Amino acid sequence: MVHRVWSRLFTVGLLASLVLAGCGAAAPTATPELPPASASIQLSWFHSIEFAGVYEALNQGYASQNKLDLTIKEGGITADGAYIDPVTEVQSGNAEFGIAGADVLLRARAAGSPLVAIAAIYQRSPVALVSLKDSNVLKPADLAGKTIGIAPPDTTVYISYRALLESEQVDPATITEVPVLPQSSVDDLFSGKIDVLHAFITHEATQARARDASVNVLLLSDYGIDIYSIDIYSNVIFTTESMIAEHPETVQAFINALTKGLTWAVDHPEDAAKHVVETYGATMAPPIQALQDEGMLASVPLIRPAGSQPGMMNAKIWDNTEQVLLSQKLIDKPLDVAKAYTLTFLNSVYGQ
Length: 352
Prior knowledge:
There is one protein chain. By secondary structure, the protein is α/β, with parallel strands linked by helices. It has two domains: about 35-125 and about 235-350, D-Maltodextrin-Binding Protein, domain 2 (3-Layer(aba) Sandwich); about 125-230, 3-Layer(aba) Sandwich (D-Maltodextrin-Binding Protein, domain 2). It contains 15 helices and ten strands. The termini are far apart.
């Protein structure tokens, strides 16, 4: 009995000495924290609420929380009249990420550019037909005999409009098309130069409604048969195949921040619009600045439609976009569309 007691006391003493010896050992060296990754995103146009989710990724600290030093580059037209092309900027390495229409991305891939969409800002197309009440344009068939103010033929807006005509079997020969400029297109509508304007519901449509609440607005994504949807993504965020292969952690950090920024923007649309005006309002014409609230409210159902999460993309919309491009002879052969986009980073965010 005595032997067992001494044996236990010896064991306890040995353990205590080991613990004390451990307390005197040098503390493990802390792993140095890596600096944030740097990346930039080239916007597709001038600053506006269309990019509110990107802005809020910075404003709310989501980028820094994900160890990302993000720079936002304004798009639009340079002083010498040249368009700042996000595809060119990303391909040349001037930006890691860019924003463009899904049709632009597919045409770039058809030309050999290894670009990949990683998220969508608007999951429903913002393209709409805007007309004064007296024009009586209540459905696509009513476009026959009208004069329509059009965007340049190679733009997502124009491609979507032509897809609507084909889907709804409206003969283009019955329509008079007149090129208009973004800055004067709403004036052209109210002056009678055109009967109908095709434009974004978040921009020109809000300007028209501010001048006359009775204007008719037809959202193109409400039309089209299942196999030929008009719902072309107008602003996907893309990068290069090499960026995804070589820096997936930076791409994931960006998507983590973006999805939180988009969510914050749709949950706080008035504040998101206020931030846009406070930060970039000096570059906007006063009437446009005053309508950022309405534009942001119109954006909410496009950014987060029922049954979806911010940023998500749908294979059917990508496939239908390819069919639109083939039908309009904007690409000459089918593509491997599945390689044009990836849900990997979004699925990581949403646990899918």
